Amino acid sequence: MKRNTAQRNGVWLALSLILCLVSGIGASVVQTAAGSIDVKDLRWETSTGQELSALLFTPDSATADQPAPAIVVSHGWWNNREMQDANYVELARRGFVVISIDMYGHGNSDRLTAGAESVNGTGMYAAVELLADLPYVDADQIGVTGHSNGARAANFSMPIDDAAETPLISAVLLVDNDGVYRDADNDNEFFNLYGTRDVGIVADQYDEFFFRSYNADGVAVTAPRDYITTDNAQSFLAFGTDPAARGEDRVAGEFYTDQVDGTEATRVIYTPAQTHPWGPFSAQTTEHTIEFFENALGAPSPIDAGSQVWQFKAFFNALGLIGFAIFLVAFTRALLTTRAFASLTVGSPGVAQPTTRKGLAWFWGGLVVSAVISGWSWVALSQTPAVGALAFNLVPSVFPQGAVTFVAFWAAINGLAAIVIMAVFYLAFGRKNGVRLRASGVLPGWKKTLLGSALGVVVVAAAFGIVFLMDYFFTTDFRLWVLAIKAFTPDKLGIALIYLPFFVFFYIASSIAVNSFNRFSIAGKEWINTAILALFISLGALVLVVAQYTTFAVTGELIPGFGGIFSIWLFPIIVILAVSVVITRKIYRATGNPYIGGVINGVVATLIAVTNSLTFT
Question: Helix, strand, or coil here: 98?
Fold first, then answer.
């Protein structure tokens, strides 16, 4: 590497480290309210014998002499405790003690046993019991809230709490999941599961899964945006009575109060015009959460619900993502100056050259075919019963994470498709027009392939070392909405080894396609070529998401036969795929070796996947 290039790379490496450090410090300042909130990373054995992981936020104002109300917050399926950062930041700064859990099977908690989802409220009730034993918590003022299946965990916790010698839960907010409206043990009559507790529901008007009414054949007859008019919603607001007997229509956003067994209780439904996955990242939902718990429990330090600062934490977390991506490239290039890896710089490809008209036809044709296969294969897998059984852990298998299994299968299919397309191109056109497999890095030799792979592993280990340092010193990670890079427990490495071949295979094939077969300048600019490739690698996924949500916005329902979860799983994939092209292109320009970037992207993608999912025993 030339001296000027090395100096420029040093600047980028320093910038990446600065961004990561600023990310950790900034996010920590926000979530601790500049040091006035203590944050503890907890892990304890619950009554089921399973270990539960959680973050505990304790304001300075909560003391044994002045115990504070407390709230358990929970993420949804295939997520983790940090996904609730908007809630724990805002509630803690208002004086609530907050505990954000990794439900069983998620994050750093122990695996979930299939069929035991309701046990201990998937871990939520264990957190309630922990809070009740803390000297600085008012055990008469404990609330629970969760998003999606985190709300289901709250519903699971109701009969457990009712059966307890001393019930502990006094307020419940269900976010993006239905309440329990009917009594299955009493002819499915409307009833009040929640008793004297204050209860609220956040029902998104464009929720992909919940808030529909169904006829006797199981066909949806109302869309989520009409939820407030349904018997379920009206009965909930009427404390479980048959809405027909009350003779009034109740509305969204208004608190309704009634006497239940001699105790005053409230009910409220919020109906924001947003989608299911947006809930944890929504200022509107966060405002509703603050308002509900201030009404139900009373905030020790009231602040207007619209005054929110969690967005600053999100900003700092996102800086960490950017720093992490830059580090992957800059540290790779820095290691190329060391004796161990210097030989990998031999054979640098130099300046990309423009292609011929026929070459451009092959280029665009290959991109279109790849995008079509990408989108088609995703839909085809989503509609294959055997794959669905694995994706939702409905059958025993060697794959402990259903969602990751689905994505891994899709990646393998598209990696194979990329190889076939490249082979056809090479045999029909490339071989006759100057494409040389050794010169382009497709066949670098076993020594360089193995050494390049070792370099990739070292880079990823160093990058995640930064992630672990941020977790150790600041209890923060790198994330933006549904995309997260976080510290993890050792068992995730074992799980990663199961899926690593699928993802590494795909990203190596992708890197070869991007660099060895499709690298040339367009209008004299190589970055245009890189941008086009980044767009097309994620285009199939992007088209599916746009089609799904355009249909949802227009009709109030999803595309028939294309389940909402399959479009949601695509959100982080779109970003990861596009960024992977930039990373591998930058590394290839320094090495002429497509395997290095492929290994780096494959290992990183695997670790992101297995540390942000649901694990069954």
Answer: strand
